[in-house]
Request: fold
Amino acid sequence: MRIKLVSLEDGTTACGFRKFAAYATQLNPDTTAHFVSTNRWASIGAAIRGTMGGKPDDITEAQVDEIARGLTGADLVGYSSMTGYSELTRRVATRLRELEPGTYQVWGGIHPIIHPQDAITAPVDAICTGEGEFAFEQLLGHLEAGTDPRATRNFWFKDGDEVRRNGFLPLMSSEDMERLPFSLYGAPGEQVYRPGQGFADMGVDDYLDNDGLSYTAIWSIGCPFHCTYCGNTAFIANDRTYKKIRHPSARYIVDEIKAVRDRFGHLSQVSFLDDSFMAIPYRQLEEFAELWRAELDIPFAVYGVIPNYVKRDKFDVLTWAGMNRIRMGVQSGSRRILDFYQRPSPPEKILAAGEVAASYAPRFHIPPTYDVIMDNPIETRQDVVDTLQLFYDMPRPYTLLIYSLKVIPNTELARSMEEQGIDLEEIDSSYLWIPPRAANLLLYVLALWRPPRWLWQRLLARVRASHEPQPLYPRLGIALRTLFLAKRALLHLRVMDFSIIPGRSGWLAWRLGLVGLWRRRMWKRPPRPAPKPRPSRGEITLPLADAA
Ligand code: B12
Ligand code: SF4
Reply:
């Protein structure tokens, strides 16, 4: 069977899609993976303007046609996308249906999991509402045997005018994950869409444009929390065991990265995007650290750090192994808004976690990055001031990733906003744009420099509640963001880290031996922490995630 899989997420990172595609290729070797990705360099201008990259609706009808034509000639086409790319997916599926009405079309990925009621209205035959691997294996078995696939779990099917909503397969266990092939990355036949040219073989430059010298990995899946704005609310509603942290062995993830490095000698840094990496118990992190240091010995960053799980012993052993950066979710400094998001990380926990995180920088780490969500229409002026004050008080150094609230449909936040009569459409449009209001600009100021207290109080006087009409300062916004981005880039370049700097510059530094030289001569790491005594026999060591 000829299968074409396509990730429409405007980038080639697509971790879940790559995992799924590796399994699908193992099942059916005549499978190719396609990526729709615009040039990352183009997004630098957007970042300065305060937008978050290209908008999928900027893709013209001619380009949609070109993408769809590139997907013809297959028996089955499988799409993968998040909600932000759902409209594009719908447009491509519609065009492909016109070009080749007989192609079996399936849509998987985050959007059909979180909002299946919407995804199933696209002109596709089925949507995948859960983990793809084992479900797709069953679906494929039916299609190959010519039997009716419509009872396959983790899928909804079109059945004439009706929709057949099947239940879920059990979530994969850690043992199941251990048996999965490594994510597809740099495999022969990977295709990337180039506007005006259609799909072409992916080359090293495409990987460099998307990931720099870095590789994005996911070791564990799951998060014990349940913040209302997060897709987790939908995953947990589908299966409560999603709260448990599941992951293959440390051996597996280290081997996955070694396999990437064998293919791409330039690989010099890894970013872990697990939802809750630090919730993995200490022993398993220690085992990971030992293998990492012995067999890879390159820097890695940990994203998705939750303040409640910031523990010095874990930081020590991971930093000894090579951790050089963390990214932590703060989201708000207002207790009221944190409660509204049902986020059990109150300001005092955030400050305590910030104390630990900042103490590793700049000696061992690039300053930590904190995520913050602004422009929530239910925030009062005091809530906004509380957020700004938290970052004013936060131990330095740090940098920020500032987001404008985007309400993901079908999450608990979407429901509670609707109950309060908030216009979600209005919030949706602000997601790709961070309005240059006083509060948002003050965050950029804080990421650059802490003003003296007297000046800070005067600046705070300009802050308004998010829903209030207020002046915008677009020119100042551009100036501050330019400085902010330049400072971020410098913090990385100082340690020859090209994980957030796409393109050939990092590759050149690597080719000239500068990356390796810096690592051998300049990279500082703390001594190995003393091994903790092993639990005595009979002691119970179970929890899938450490207690919060
Ligand atoms: C890694 C990650 C990223 C990475 C890589 C993107 C990626 N898709 O891998 C990066 C950093 C680029 C990223 C960016 C963003 N992300 Co993100 N990201 C994640 C994260 C943490 C893990 C994704 C993952 O790998 N999960 C594990 C894998 C195994 O699961 P999976 O992706 O669902 O894949 C499985 C199934 O869906 C299925 N499947 C997938 N494809 C297909 C295809 C077919 C045909 C079939 C049958 C099955 C199938 O099989 C897979 C394996 O079981 C998730 C949170 C989460 N827990 O999922 C957020 C998440 C996906 N991100 C989210 C968001 C909002 C974003 C941003 C918009 C944030 C922002 N404001 O900038 C950007 C979008 C950028 C872009 N260009 O797309 C939201 C999406 C919500 C939604 N409804 O769309 C999530 C759910 C987090 C949240 N807040 O709730 N993200
Ligand atoms: S801690 Fe992060 S991943 Fe976990 S539910 Fe909250 S936002 Fe989602």
Notes: The pocket of iron/sulfur cluster (ligand 2) is lined by residues 223, 225-227, 230, 232, 275-276, 306, 329 (CB under 6 Å).
